[in-house]
Amino acid sequence: MYKRILDHLTTAILLFDGDLILTYINTAGEIILADSARHLVGYNAQQLFKVSNPSLLANLQQCLTMVEPLVDHSTILNRMGQSVTINLSATPLLQSEQVQEILVELQQIDNHIRISKDEQLLTQQNTARLLIRGLAHEIKNPLGGLRGAAQLLDLELDAPELKEYTQIIIAESDRLQGLMDKMLGPNKLPNKKALNIHEVLERVRSVVQAESIGNLDIQCDYDPSIPDIYADKDQLIQALLNIARNAVQATEGKGHIILKTRIHRHVTIGRKRHKLAVKCDIIDDGLGIDPEMMKQIFYPMVTGRADGTGLGLSIAQALINQHNGLIECNSESGHTVFSIFLPLGTGNE
């Protein structure tokens, strides 16, 4: 019964015996160590932490030797090429004044920092989107009147050289109308159906490959065990295509792009916690995004390119938000990752 309770905790619980051999680990512990209990149980602490976190190993040995509980804040744990920040609490469990077991609690704190940043990001984006939508609506009304007046004037004019000017007004009005429609973002709710995420990614890959000159290398690293998600296929293709095209432009059409999928457990998006979510990474080896630009890349009309509209990422984020998902970005020179999180669940979510 207690194991069932521990498996539902968000704090990682590890139990070591007197020889520092792992005898139990809960689900949250599997997530932090990025491995299964079936594989981890039976390993000693040295095998688990000597490489990934030597200080954690030293703490456990000290707890065993001194027979005293200890706490270590903000320690780094390396796993699978990634680093996570954790708080550690180790408590010796005594029997006849001898240490029989050591109870270890690990709490991933950078995940809480990420959730806080995500909430702030969503709030900022929603505020910016409301402002932009209000501005676009205000512009569309007089724009329609301007186009209508130009059409009436065109009917009254006989001279071809004068009609040329009215045609310019009409064409430019149509161009601005299209820009306003893009700024307003998605104008319909997603039509969600059961969908294989790899079907979407393969469509994106084929379109991007066809648009490139031929020097672009696209690699796929898919987890075939990911179940179907409930999503609007066309909207997801549009969102991921906008991000993939950004990656192509960042590599100037001759770099390397990786499309990667993985399952993540206990993902919090906004204020809602999801048991399972699919994470799609679009990775490129381009020049990277300027640190000053990183805070604004999802805002409408913000772009780092002279020929860009600054709407691609904003539209992508709006489409993913409609699927209760989130887009994150981490970038440095030669390595930029856009991560799309989409919750797995029923079509009613």
Summarize the topology.
Elements: H1 2-6, E1 12-17, E2 22-25, H2 27-33, H3 37-40, H4 45-49, H5 54-66, E3 70-79, E4 82-95, E5 98-108, H6 109-156, H7 160-184, E6 193-195, H8 197-211, E7 217-221, E8 229-231, H9 233-250, E9 256-269, E10 272-284, H10 291-294, H11 312-321, E11 326-332, E12 335-343
Parallel strand pairs: 7-9
Antiparallel strand pairs: 1-2, 1-5, 3-4, 4-5, 6-8, 9-10, 10-12, 11-12
Describe the structure.
The protein is α+β, with helices and mostly antiparallel strands. The protein has three domains: 111 residues, 2-Layer Sandwich (Beta-Lactamase); 60 residues; 151 residues, Histidine kinase-like ATPase, C-terminal domain (Heat Shock Protein 90, 2-Layer Sandwich). It has eleven helices and twelve strands. The strands form three sheets. A five-stranded antiparallel sheet has the order 2-1-5-4-3. It is elongated, with a radius of gyration of 27 Å. The model has no long low-confidence stretch (mean pLDDT 80).
